[in-house]
Amino acid sequence: MDKNELLVKVCGITDAANAEEIAMLQPNMMGFILYPKSSRYIDFLKAKEIIALLPKGIKKVAVLVNEPLHRAKQIADSRTFDILQLHGNESIEYCQSLATRIPIMKAFGVVDQLPAELEAYSRCCTYFLFDTKSENYGGSGQKFNHEILKQYSNNLEFLISGGIDLDDIDSIIGLKHEKLKGIDINSKFEEIAGIKDVNKVKKLIKKIKQCTRK
Questions:
Q1: pLDDT at 139
Q2: Which of 89, 103, 132, 189 could connect to 126 by a Cys-Cys bridge, CB 3.0–4.6 Å?
Q3: Diameter of the chain measured on Cα atoms
Q4: Is pTM beyond 0.90 here?
Q5: What is the rounded distance in angstroms from the CA atom of residue 127 to the CA atom of residue 29?
Q6: Residue 128: closest CA among 90, 101, 175
Q7: Phi and psi based region of residue 18 (left: phi greater than 0; alpha: psi -120 to 50; beta: remaining)
Q8: Domains annotated on the chain, with CATH
Q9: pLDDT in tens, 87-144
Q10: How many Å apart are CA 56 and CA 111, to the nearest integer?
């Protein structure tokens, strides 16, 4: 992989056969939403079964939303996942207590400005994820104004989520932000909730490789 190439995270995996097809496209990360209120919810045991079928080179991400800390620690210690994505209102202390166990990707909802507390969170996270703010902790399928990210001055690398489609790739790459690490795709690349459109994901990954940032 070219060092300037955006990472691709395919989130909301729920089906084993579909997951294996997506894995053949070699995304960098695959996300499993362990949040019961999500339409793409998958329970831990089913996620573990699917992960056992996937190549080790793909990072597996558990998406948690305000999970009780003891349970989040159990998930981290299970060694099933490579990263915990915290998509709720998790405190700095919460993140710190997990970061000794597993890399943390902390998600923040964005409307018209970046969160004020990023510097403090950066000390215990591996990545930030910027998503469109919604009442339901993401999953709105809507984009925020990516130009806001030009204000980002932290040293931590970040991913972008929120309604990303094929047509957005050129403008995202055009941000030319040195800390932009990748994109997180979900609803715009689905046949139905939780089942990914393999051909569309294939087109995305091909486009990312063709449009590698200079």
A1: 61
A2: 103
A3: 44
A4: yes
A5: 13
A6: 90
A7: alpha
A8: 7-210 (3.20.20.70)
A9: 999 999 999 999 999 999 999 999 889 999 999 999 999 999 999 988 776 566 789 9
A10: 36
